[in-house]
Amino acid sequence: MMERLQKFIAKAGVTSRRKAEKLILEGRVKVNGEVIRTLGVKIDPEKDIVEIDNKIVKPDKKIYIALYKPVGYISSLYDPFGRRTIKDLLRDKVPFRVYPVGRLDFDSEGLLLCTNDGEIANVLIHPRYKIPKVYEVLIDGIPKEEELKKLREGVILEEGRTLPAGFEIIWENRRKNISLLKITLYQGWKRQIRRMLALFNYKVLNLKRVQIGKIKLGDLKPGEIRFLRDDEIRWLESLKA
């Protein structure tokens, strides 16, 4: 079955489809020895030989992992400042090269998906697909209903107006003046939740992501991983349609 070159590269786990398109336009991709510089070219994955920077692209087995990223780790495989990264957590547990899907801040924790499926990674992080990400956020203070309403409808940050989101109070302690919020976002700007709450002078004490789409953190403990179940992988595959 013929498929677009950039889709083949993404499915092979090399990079996302968008970055694959950039590689093609830069003239770094060959098909059967011929440099391809235009998008839309179709190949036969069973017969054609694809190279990137003169290295043959071989589709990897697709790996999908749920990781509980603890506070104090970078959502990257490398940090120039020598801080701990998720690679330190995956090194002895995953005999495959996988990449984080999106990010969690250094001082945040919870569910982080890792995969070598560039196409799925692109779908999960692109706001166009509106994949819900659910967080449990402990804050200093108890938001008023009118403040929650504004947060739900969208507020203005440096990048623009945030998409409509879910903000609700799970529990509150008036004596300690703290509350736990359930927040559902459909985009992932840098430190978005912290910046949104800061507009109303609320400080985040703890931020944990507990769900991405149909994939839940569940009983994972900080630093633990699990390979996704078949039903979760089927859901991911359905996103490609």
Provide a brief overview of the structure.
It is an enzyme of class 5 (isomerase). The protein is of the alpha+beta class.
Describe the structure using short key phrases.
single chain, Structural Genomics Hypothetical 15.5 Kd Protein In mrcA-pckA Intergenic Region, Chain A, Alpha-Beta Plaits, 3 domains, 30% strand, elongated
3D architecture notes:
The protein is of the alpha+beta class and 241 residues long. The chain folds into 3 domains: 54 residues, RNA-binding S4 domain (Structural Genomics Hypothetical 15.5 Kd Protein In mrcA-pckA Intergenic Region, Chain A), CATH 3.10.290.10; 88 residues, Pseudouridine synthase I, catalytic domain, N-terminal subdomain (Alpha-Beta Plaits); 81 residues, Alpha-Beta Plaits (2-Layer Sandwich), CATH 3.30.70. Helix content is 22%, strand content 30%. The strands form 4 sheets. Strands 7, 8, 9, 10, 13, 14, 15, 16 and 17 form a 9-stranded mixed sheet that branches. A 4-stranded antiparallel sheet has the order 3-2-5-6. Strand 11 and strand 12 form a beta hairpin. Helix 1 packs across helix 2. It is elongated.
